[in-house]
Structure prediction request, 549 residues.
Amino acid sequence: MIGLLTVALAAGIATLSAPHIKAMLSASSSVAGLTGTCATPPAAGSASPAMSGAAAGVVAVAGSRVLSAPATPAPAGAAGSPAATKATTGPAVPTPTAAGASTAAPAPAAPATSQSAAPATSQSAAPATAPATTAPCPSPTPSGPPPPANANCKLIVPAHPLTAAGLATPYQLTGPGGAAPAAFGCTMANAANLGAFVQATILDPVTGKLWVYEPLVITKGTKPAAAPAVPALPARAVVTIDIGFNGSNLTLAGATPRALHQGHCHNGLGDSIFGQVSFCHGSHFFYAAYRAEKQGKLVVPPAGVSPKTGQPCPTTRSFTLVDQDPSDNVTTKYLLTAGGRTAQFNGPNAAAWPGATVLTNGSDNALLDGFVDPVLGCKPFTAPDLSRGGAPGTSQALDELSAARSQAAPVALVPENDPMVLVNNALSAAKTDRYRSNVGQPAVSPGTDAADSPAKFCQNMINIQARFLSDHQALLASGPSPVPSVGSNLLTFMANRLVMSYTNLNCRDFALTNPVKVTLNGNGVATAATFDTTQQTAGSAVTATPAPR
Prediction:
């Protein structure tokens, strides 16, 4: 589900909503920690496929305007995939991108601990401070933007992906259905739209030690700009691999007939894929990690308390932070040379290519680790990154371990109405459980449904997150926006994101109202927000028919 925006008009104020903003986040890479690199500017049409217009034309509102356009069909995806569902169930909308907007560099993530969550209390209007931005890089030469209709690609997984040799063997991005990469824009030079990213987290079950490693993705037919580092793994290492994508649907193929089996890799349930994400060996990894914790070998530090708010630091399972599809995509970064080749993100490679562009995957994890935590004075859980010479690194799996350790009730788990876990637009406990098991979350049950049934997830997200944003407006507005063309600061960005999630989880079906209104400036950038913090109770609703387990 690529970042799509829906624009609606309400009471003379522009309200911005969208199905997904992950691809938009990809345009907001952090370059902290490496010298000589620069940030990728949003590509033409970046994060703006299909449009679902509620209104047409341009409407001026008190010095602001709302951009909207006629509806156009979304591209069809793989059978049962989120993109395929979107194409049949409703229109979608292009991102209003600010002219000349460049990306913001968040503060570097500090090592060691951090994460957890808590509600807040009360109301009102968001300040509009715009953060500083970084200079854009020169555009890489080899590949232009993709044809507008395509949002789907294929990723070739190397043989024995869980071994040291497999981790150091590049994954290959290519076009769907056997097409050449450039024919559909499936190149890493076009990463803001269709880039793929891979991240490994490694556990020694004997000692409880953890490491992270970022396997490289290259465009099929190219070679790495620098040979990937070969990690040294303990003899009985348990490895999980998380894969993220900046387009809509990424399918996996093995470099050898048994590669996917060797890695325990999958990207959905049967023919119904998750869409942007895939996993290798995730459920095995979390079983081993939780066992090591019980044995006292693995010690996950507590998330801690924010010195700015006095509340627990957010986690990926905090209703203060989650969106419509929580716990997705990775914190991996790559370097892209002017010649269109990729390299791992580390000091030696940055020194070798001083003008290289930093590529990132738009993710909930990157939002937490790189933007929210620094503003709140919190620190993400880190481990030595073997692709960066042992420097502290974050990962999707580390964030989930931290959330499992520290998140207080109510705990936000992947809900059954998350578009990534629907099967033919119907709820599927089996597909939800497949996703949850790969990020270390408990299966669907009456116990988890108390906070995470479709209705309760909507209720908790609206009540807790709107109040959190309202109570900490000045603090959050002081942080840079992950996507300056969407929100002028961290607060307005998160406000937009909450409205998008309300819309795309169909929360109104549960008699819940949208708690946020966002004002846009003349370039379509959200510059202010108002919050209704009235606590709501979800009602019964006619929802999608559950698919068989």
